Amino acid sequence: MSAHDMPLVTIVTPSFDQASYLEETIQSVLEQDYPNIEYFVMDGGSSDNSVEIIKKNAKNLAWWVSEADKGQTDAINKGFGHANGQILAWLNSDDTYEPGAVSAAVDYLQKHANVGMVYADCNFIDQNSKLIGKFAAAQTDYKRLRKGYVHIPQQTMFFRSELWRIVGPLDPSFYFAMDYDLWIRIASRTEIKYLSGQTWANFRIHRSGKTITADDRVWPEMLHVHYRDGGKFLSVIVAKYYIRKLIAPLWNWRRRMKLKLTKD
Fold first, then answer.
1. Separation of alpha carbons 75 and 222, rounded Å
2. What DSSP letter does each residue of 45-84 carry, written as one string?
3. Which domain holds residue 247?
4. Phi then psi dihedrals of residue 61, to 5 deg
5. Angle of CA points 10, 14, 17, to nearest 5°
6. String of b and e for 225-245 (b: at least 16 CB within 10 Å)?
């Protein structure tokens, strides 16, 4: 089978002032062994040397732009608005794919027509790309997602573009939980599948990353989805929110200490 006979995969990288990591992100996509990838880099008008990095790789990109936008969600929506692929994914500009990730995702989706979205395991890495942990990925579904049992590393997610045409775009009012909102909408219409034992990506934890600087925003946004879709106050996800609110300072302190130790 020639490359053009294989499903086209569109990957979007939203980026803003991430020159420290952008080259590694781009290369992790360009070095994939899957031969039919449409790759977009959506830069939000960076003031560092991100544009120089993008231009250096421009001949291998299907499209790129550097212009002011309304943030990460807007950049992803803009990219998917131009996508031609049958399978879609986004990879943030400080994360990376593992070799073979795209091929593995496409292979599974081709063999399982009933599955609309697939995801796998993910590493945590630090600012120097050193392994510092493992994401607690696990199988979830619509009912469990509604209860706050997420367990999906966004970096490893691949889904069918036909679903995007039905449930997209991402809600631009979300800064953190736009992926959770999308998973809820996808899982309400199709099966999603976790492939245990396959590591497809690396989630970078660093001091300027959203996971450190704005983690307290994710659960309120998830609760917004919960109430929007008819959820009640007396529910598992609301209870989890208040428990996490109590222990979140400790978690973030531990993350910062781990980053400090890896830097030292």
1. 21
2. --SSSHHHHHHHTGGG-SEEEE---S-HHHHHHHHHHT--
3. 3-263
4. -100, 145
5. 150
6. bbeeeebeeebebbebbeeee
Predicted TM-score of the model (pTM): 0.89
Beta strand pairing status for 9-15 and 87-90? parallel
Structure tokens at 19: 């020159």
Is residue 68 within 8 Å of residue 44, measured between CB atoms? Answer: yes
Residue with tokens 């890495």: 125
Q: What is the pLDDT of residue 259?
A: 57
* Three-state SS at 108: helix
**Helix H or strand E encompassing 202:** strand 191-204
What does the pLDDT read at residue 206?
Answer: 77
> Per residue in 167-201, is it b (16+ CB within 10 Å) or e — as a string?
bbebbeebebbbbbbbbbbbbeebebbbbeebbbb
- Mean pLDDT value of segment 19-48: 98
* C-alpha 260, offset from chain centre: 25
CATH of the domain at 126: 3.90.550.10
Query: What is the domain count for the chain?
Result: 1
Helix, strand, or coil here: 165? helix
